[in-house]
Amino acid sequence: MRTGCDGWLLILCAYDLTNWDASARAATSGHPVTAAAAGHDTVPLEFTVRGQRVAAILRTPRVQRPADAPGAPGRAGSPGVVLTGPFTGVKEQVVSVYARRLADAGLATLVFDHRNFGASGGEPRQHEDAAGKLEDLRGATSALAAQPSVDPGRVGCVGVCLGGGYALRHSAFDPRIRAVAFVAAAFNDPRAMRQGMGDDGYREQMRAFSEVEQRQFGTGETEYLPAVDRDGGPAAMPGREPWDYYGTERSAAPGWVNRVTRLSVRELLTFDAAIGADFLAGTPALFIHGRRDDFCSPTAADATYRRAQTADKEFLRLDTTNHIDLYDNPAYVDQAAARLSDWLARRL
After folding, report:
1. 341 alpha-carbon distance from chain centroid
2. Is the pTM of this model over 0.85?
């Protein structure tokens, strides 16, 4: 769904291509992601949020940074980074693309399935729950900081696409996050959504959602719509670009399902991520965004950067051709990951 305004952001995701051979990657995506040397160990992890299981992957660097490395020398354990990704995304997708590179650069990383998605618990399945995702991020931060291999005083956060907005809100209100970075981020703002849709259009959309709510109360059945649709039919992420990505082997991933609850769209239209910029309280912030991005507005990213209440902020603009260049195109992913690694290492 799009409104055609800078406030509306279409969310995509990407698959972790590490274990594919080079010919398979080239045949399916056209963008074989450059794999870094295996400089980290990977283990499954799980934690609970409100009694529900959250499935995660912990990556730890095999080589600790030297004592004179930038950041906080002389501290036990590696700096750690928790990552959160796109709408409908699961942990094996784009967050792992970046997590592997950060781990190879000496940063412990944690990726996870938000509740209601992938291998994690939660009901209804495939439902976007903004408040719940923020709870998940707090739980993930606690889980990462509790690892013996991680220095709990050096924890950062990275958000990709819709996850960028969640990373902003989380980092603004959780002082454990010492630095935050955003990649092709969606900074949802209900005011901008309403402006783009018009007052009447926005209110009518809310009315339609209330009718879904009432029907579900009566039937006891959760209503769904496709995440993407090949033929241009109703979908949460309409258009050819998301279908070519999600609807093909290019983004095949365990646990990813091509549907979302109808009321997930209400969450996207009403969640205020951008307000987090007012509460960063000096937390260092790195923005990485493509100059061309039809789905996560560069204008909104610029506005959020200017709004961010921190003196230590940086904006890296890349000459992308589309939104998902920052998901699996090595010409852009490698640049973004290299800047992320260096910037985080100097601040954690």
Report:
1. 17
2. yes
